[in-house]
Amino acid sequence: MNYLTLITIFVSIVLLYEYKIKCLYAKEETLKGNLKILSGNINENITLKCDQGEFIHILDASYGNPNIDNFLIKKNSLDAPHTLPVVQMLCEGKEICDMNVTNDTFRILSIIKDFHRLIIKYSCVSLKPKQIPSYNIKAKRGDNKIWNVEFQGEELNKNLYLHVNNINAICDTPLLKKNYVGIDEAKFECNNISSCVYIIFNNDGYTLCESSSYKNATVQKNSKIYIKMSYINGNIPDNYEVVPNIQGVCEKNEIIYEMESVLRVDDVYEKCKEINCDYFTLSTANGLKGVSRNFRNHAWLCKGFPKYVSHEGFIFGKNNMNSKNPKQRMFPIGFEGPLI
Fold this sequence. Notes:
Layout: H1 3-25, E1 28-32, E2 35-41, E3 45-49, E4 55-64, E5 67-69, E6 72-74, H2 83-91, E7 96-100, E8 117-125, E9 135-141, E10 147-153, E11 161-171, E12 174-178, H3 183-191, E13 198-202, E14 205-209, E15 214-228, E16 240-249, E17 255-259, H4 265-275, E18 279-283, E19 299-302, E20 307-319
Antiparallel strand pairs: 1-2, 2-8, 3-7, 4-8, 5-6, 9-10, 11-15, 12-14, 13-14, 13-15, 16-20, 17-19, 18-19, 18-20
């Protein structure tokens, strides 16, 4: 066997391997009614599109190494936690949207070589959703796998939800009850009803609720409550960014104050302003796993530069030190029990 033959065999093997990879992980779109799941590999271009007169509504997204299971996006713990707001910012409310599956698209400054895939779940709706205002994002993932994400912009998506897991409750004023279909479908329903405050998921299905509080909350595995952040945020000062389901990791020497039994996020803003904190992390009804229940509804106010990890049931707030007039946000008052 001569040298030229060896080179030919080697090139053929490489081409065959690349073809196999493309077949296994090629970009594809899966349909289920008016819902679509589009996936693409790193460095590919993908296109979200709707028929004429319909508009893109982003339901979920994950960039890193996610998978699809029963038409739900299963996220890897190391996936970029800011994928959804970036995709919403780029594509929400458009008829067609082209995206490059790259770290640059998601404003990732770190060198990350283990990200391979982007998955987006969306629907086409006849009523044009409000487009998400543009804001700057800087994202880094450290050697310890902890994310540091900075949001700089006018406002964040008001349709974000706080996730309270393994909790079941009773809704005083139900708007809609359905058999369980999927979290994204329920969120879509709630987003289209202005009076919908939160969603209760349990073995019976899901319930959209108008009440400003829930009652008889009990621990129940696999049940969950999703609460619109617009009803929790309170009066966000203009210099703050507030994000649900993210925990700002605060080193012990960076904690300058702690608050117990926090029932209003406004109280945290006021305390943070008083002591000039840089950021805060607030646990909610889920608390910290493996730690005393005393750490439910507990706030840590910190100085320094925050690090981030995905943590459902937490609220993270960052003081950008660029104060303007406060933005007025809705917050229910006079309720029996706290939403958080």
